[in-house]
Predict the structure.
Amino acid sequence: MDDPVVKLENVWKIFGERSDEAMKAVREKGLTKPEVLEQFRCVVGVQDASFEVSRGEIFCIMGLSGSGKSTLVRHVNRLIEPTAGKIEILGQDVSTMSATELRRIRAQQIGMVFQHMALLPHRSVRDNVAYPLEIRKVPKSRRWAISDHALGLVDLTGYEDRLPRELSGGMQQRVGIARALASDPEILLMDEPFSALDPLIRLQLQDQFKALVAQLKKTTLFITHDLDEAIRIGHRIAIMKDGVIVQIGTPEDIVMNPADDYVREFVQGISKLKLVKAHSIMEPMERFKGSLDGAPRADEGADLDQLIDLAVETDMPVVITQDGADIGIVTKPRLLRGIQGGKDE
Amino acid sequence: MSDATTDMKVTAASDVEVDRDALDRSIKEFAGPNGDYYVNAFHTIHDNTGFVPRTFNLAAALLGPLWASSRALWGMFWTFLILEIIAWVQIGRGLWGNLGADFIARADQQRERMQERLDQAAAAADDETRQRFEQLAENMQRAIDQNLERAEAAQAEGLGILLIGLVLLVGFKLVQGVYANIAYEKQYSRWRIDPTGTESGRSTTNLLLGVVLTALIAPLIVYKFTVSNSLALLNEFPEREVSTLVLGDGGGTLFGAVASWMEARIDAAATAGGDVFDGIVLGVRTVLDGLTLALNGSPWPVVMLVIAVTAYRAAGPRVAIFTVAAMAYTALLGYWALAMETVALVGAAVILCVLIGIPLGIWFGKSTRAYKMAEPVLDLMQTLPAFVYLIPIIAFFGTGNPPGILATIIFGMPPVIRLTALGMRGVPESIKEAAVAFGASKWQLLKDVEIPLALPSIMAGVNQTILMCLSMVVIISLIGGGGLGQEILEALQFAAKGPGLLGGFAILFLAMVMDRIVQGAFKRADQK
């Protein structure tokens, strides 16, 4: 397997003038968040976060406002300095980079998209997209060509010479995405890019974005406060609460095995039909006494939706196969429980 | 709705009971001594729906300002202290004031003069002269009688004044008694919002402070206004005596000492830094000379044409027409050269303000600490009357146009600094963060993001600065600045109404044209 593209190890961020002292106290005495606030007047933004993101993966960080997810992601390009811990991008340690090196890696390897677009209002759409290239002193002819290509990727051909304010919110955010893609970075940091948009546009952009990233094979850190969005887009999801990463896992993992009550509460309202796969609810073949002749068959990767379609046709359980071989069964009670979210019988 | 599971009890507003216990406790805590009295008083105030107050605080009426001070109602203390003193002064004048003193003093003087006349009459050589003097003495005697009569009448008024004083005093006491609880209830409301910042209860310290203040103020005032020949010490600050005390006999006054010390300092500084000041003057003069050469050295038709075209391009046809009319006015009345000199003066000041002010503004916009340090200086530059700093400018830079420009810069630079700093601070953090995230260096951030986004504010600052500089045109003529300002100054000195008004209109037109052109140009830039 490839080395991880982004790797965070025990990253801490404590805000406040006495953050170093507070960090030391936390290490030595194991102070809790409220204690740090009381004794040092420091706020713990991120607490001991570690994760790895591999090439081409979309890694979602989900949490409510104030949970530290934006703070965490800003450590990746060192917009925020960590109080402690190690951050590596493509095998390089970010925290020891010189200012010049840091600017170079920001300009070439990391594209970032912001919740409030953050476009330059006095520049045309094209010049906005070309701005990261301009910083790198790419000649104008080249950066205009690249910029037009990037705008083509997000379906904005024809709007190059407009000013950002002439575009709708959804279009502006597409400009933001084009700008992040323009320098062909390895890593995309998406800071709640679709949160400020209305729901229909958001759905559209989510699909468009997912397809685009799959095609361009960008490693993506995607911040959101919306679990639906995280599940729809992410390969893996990290759930944050009060600066702590509570759980990391695939969408299915998180929905089926929430780590604690906090996650469980989140997951409750999520539809499991497309998310839960046959292999996570199947039982051993031996549980069923009787003949399985004529029972419908489904691959272990089939989701609940597909299983329901098969189950309504017959009184028999559905047989689950792996590479053509039968490996388990899903009975109707089991299926119904699965829809509920894997409650134990 | 019928099967609503909520347990909350809904009561109609009219059935809501007033919970007096909690309120009473709170009022008692606030009032301290005499808590029960104030509980009742506040309830009466709270229950009162009409305009007429229904409580009377006897302690406040009797003690007056002292009660207010003991309860920390300082506004009330000062108001009624002053009002009661007015009443006491009337009472004092009525009781022991020498009301006719002025008239009697005048009569005494006249008596002396009459005596002189009588002496002169006695010494007169011929009858005619004697008769004339006797006549004068007789007139004088009549005036004396009149004054004595008036003095008597004034004395008789004493009783009336005493009565007025008593009525006033009783009136003020009544008002205090009625108003006291209302004011105290307001204090209570403030105390509920901000218990630590609002004084509550009765405090001996405050009472003592009230007593001391009253004792210091009231007797002196009553004394000063009731006794006709009060101590000279109270009429005038004894600065001479203090000067002698500090500097010894024959040492002159404190004022003289400090003033001559400062003059020596300034002279020394001017000599010591002579090269620096000369350099500054030279720099300013270079800018001014360049502008003067362009405006007054070029043939006048060319300058007029350029100005008209600039107005048209920058601000459109209407402003262009106005500009041409204004130029015709100045040229026809013979003000052309002077007007161009004024434009060069203002232009040089504005150019220097912008060159110095915008970088300073950028710095202050980025560093809060620098801005905090500079703000008092900027305030001073704008509030200090121009006449005050004209004098040191003469000392350091001499007279003429360049020192005038320096004075103009002092007054005109703050707006461009302030508005540049304001614009810099108004640039959204998110956009700056985006530029940094894409690898922008500090210089790129400044050049591509901060300055372009702050530009509308910076341009507003420049416009303000131009207008401020124009307003200094007349003032700098006091230290030898030329142009139209000098014309006005001369007209002012000779009270020449015609020339003054004509020159004034020329300045007015100049200001309007400059303002219109600059604003038009900025509006166009904004729309782009």
